[in-house]
Amino acid sequence: MERPTGPWDPGLQVERTTLAWLRTTLAFVAGMLVLLRLIGHESTIAAAACGVLTLPLGITISWLVWRRHLRNERRLHAETPLPGGALPAAVAALSVLAGCSGLIYVLFA
Amino acid sequence: MATDPEDCDSRWPRRLYRDGSEPDPRFTLANERTFLAWIRTALALMAGGVGIEALNAVTDRPSPFRTALAILLLLAGVLSSATAFTRWMVTERALRRGRPLPAPRLAPVLGYGLGAVGVAACVLLFVTGL
């Protein structure tokens, strides 16, 4: 792929955004692992159930982020519009859910 | 080039993409990164809340102050992540219409609020050994 001659490099913009996505996914997975460890003190079954439900999400999000990265690069070079807001909305909803499970842990554990 | 499975006209939320014209992609990507920074802030707040509550589990003197602090941090986390997407959308709409960006209303509240929580936690730490 040819490097651009313009004042900004599309590759770097997309790379930075993808890294921000990966940092966020990592924070999400690390947070869930800590929460699972704490739930494990109360009930192993509950922790296992939550783990089975949440940990594949980390892999799924990473895969979707990688797909978004490739799509961003392709569209920037083709000068077509960037992808929409479905993935951000899903991640925001997940984050709200994570906060609510934290609240449930604090209030009932 | 492979055909793109997500057609440009089918982007979600549709109402947003019917407005205005395509902005500079740099601004769209910067908006996305700001959104992600808000989500990370929310996750950090939640981690702090759960961490403080976990202290109750390992000490023999559970404190209601700790639980109150944990709930406060978790609520701040939920609020931040719940408003992050709306803010992303409002900013993207402003970019598409070429209007000024919305004022960050939650940022000062969170800043001063966390400052106050920090001071209160310090006082509690020294007075009651929280």
TrEMBL record, chain A:
Residues 9-75 form the DUF202 domain. The chain crosses the membrane at residues 20-39, 46-66, 86-108. InterPro entries: DUF202 (IPR003807). Signal peptide: none annotated. Coiled coil: none annotated. It is a multi-pass membrane protein. Its main location: membrane. Pfam families: DUF202. It is found in: Endomembrane system. One of its GO terms (cellular component) is endomembrane system. Keywords: Membrane, Transmembrane, Transmembrane helix. This is Putative membrane protein. The lineage of its organism: Bacteria, Bacillati, Actinomycetota, Actinomycetes, Pseudonocardiales.
TrEMBL record, chain B:
Signal peptide: none annotated. Pfam families: DUF202. Residues 26-94 form the DUF202 domain. The chain crosses the membrane at residues 35-55, 67-89, 109-127. Keywords: Cell membrane, Membrane, Transmembrane, Transmembrane helix. It is found in: Cell membrane. The keyword Phosphoprotein does not apply. GO terms for cellular component: plasma membrane. The keyword Transmembrane helix applies. It is a multi-pass membrane protein. This is Putative membrane protein.
